Amino acid sequence: MGRNFGLLLAVVGCVVLTACSLPRGAAVKGEVIGPNVLPEDVSVEEVTRASVGQLSTWPETGWDGHYHWFNRDVGPSSNLIRAGDQIVLTVWDNQENSLLLGPEQRFVQVQPTPVSASGAVFVPYVDSILVGGLTASQAREVIQQKLAPIAPSAQVQIEVLPGTKNSVDVVSGVSKPGPITLTGRDVSILSALAKAGGIHDSVLNPVVRLIRNEKRYDIPANSLFEDPKKNVILRGGDQIIVVEEQRYFVAVGATEKEELVYFHQEDISAMEAVSLLGGLQDARANPQGLLILRQYQQSDIKLNGGGPKSQWVVFEFNLTTADGLFAARNFDVNPRDLVLSTESAVKPAQAVFALLGTLIALNNFSN
């Protein structure tokens, strides 16, 4: 027995030494925000149901863009003539000695004529006629009325060739980029993307960008697909660009995955971030020590409340309580945040003691 017990002690000693030297994937909570290790210029905020509302009003960090989109508006179903369009007139007249037609002619076609910046188009024998803002049918009636004094029996056909003001450009991120003519005043952005062959498979986490009147509007493609109100009506001159999402957060520690995580939707809560990472590792993670590290601008600091007390802030979550779980569900991760799941100091020791108990039991059994 003495020999076996001595051997057991030797094995236990090796196990203990090995446990002490095992590499860890993340810090213990106390090593990050402990009272003797926390730098003076770093503050800690415990996130609870009571505090999460106030914390959500703090300045956004990590991204200088925006997702200011707008809801769908509805225009008239007929296309309107705009500056830059071209008008093709065909005039039919059966009157003898017509001023518009030559001998034996039944009709004459006027060469495409551009609509001026003021919305007017030149018609021979009549001069300029205002057609901007009219439908093709309305413009035909106006032109025919103007022609009536010189050609009472004339009938007019009109064709509108859309210019840049009645088309949009789908620039990139689709299978078939290029200009798309607006065939009506109710063409939506999803219709334009469909005509362009859809978003290209090579674009990961796509964001749809609309440029209108020198202003930029962005929305994640998933958000656009899921909300019919976001399927906006296009206007002539709009430009559509599909780009890859640039926002991300960094995840390290005792989660199933440690990686750079790109946003797949507009907002990701702390709880959703944990879920995206495959959850906490049962054998390593400390559910009372989920930390989000964030850096603010110096100008964001508000020592009297209403903002961060320092430029560097650690947000602390306790996922073992209902209060902490609800808080994590309502706290949004910002781009470039560091999401750290700390390791438990107790679980490795528990594993060593469990192994020690097993070895003692085996020794007793052998004796």
Topology, pairings included?
Elements: H1 2-21, H2 29-33, E1 42-46, H3 49-55, E2 86-92, E3 107-114, E4 120-123, E5 127-130, H4 136-147, E6 155-161, E7 167-172, E8 178-181, H5 189-195, E9 206-212, E10 215-220, H6 221-226, E11 239-244, E12 248-253, E13 259-262, H7 270-276, E14 285-295, E15 312-317, H8 322-330, E16 338-343, H9 346-366
Explain how this protein is built.
- There is one protein chain.
- β12 (248-253) and β13 (259-262) form a beta hairpin.
- The strands form 4 sheets. Strands 1-15-14-16-12-13 form a 6-stranded mixed β-sheet, covered by helices on one side. A 5-stranded mixed β-sheet has the order 8-7-11-9-10. Strands 3-2-6 form a 3-stranded antiparallel β-sheet, covered by helices on one side.
- The chain is α+β, with helices and mostly antiparallel strands and 367 residues long.
- The chain has helices at 2-21, 29-33, 49-55, 136-147, 189-195, 221-226, 270-276, 322-330, 346-366, and strands spanning 42-46, 86-92, 107-114, 120-123, 127-130, 155-161, 167-172, 178-181, 206-212, 215-220, 239-244, 248-253, 259-262, 285-295, 312-317, 338-343.
- The longest helix has 21 residues, at 346-366.
- The model has no long low-confidence stretch (mean pLDDT 84).
The run of helices and strands is: HHEHEEEEHEEEHEEHEEEHEEHEH
Residue fraction in strands: 25-35%
What is the helix fraction of residues, given as a range? 25-40%
Classification by helices and strands: alpha+beta
Shape summary: rod-shaped
Q: Unreliable segments (pLDDT under 50, ≥5 consecutive)?
A: none
Major sheet characteristics: 6 strands, mixed
| pLDDT averaged residue by residue | 84
Number of DSSP E strands = 16
Calculate Rg over CA atoms. Answer: 35 Å
Quaternary status: single chain
What strand order characterises the main sheet? Answer: 1-15-14-16-12-13
Number of helices: 9
Q: Kindly report how far apart the N and C termini lie.
A: 7 Å
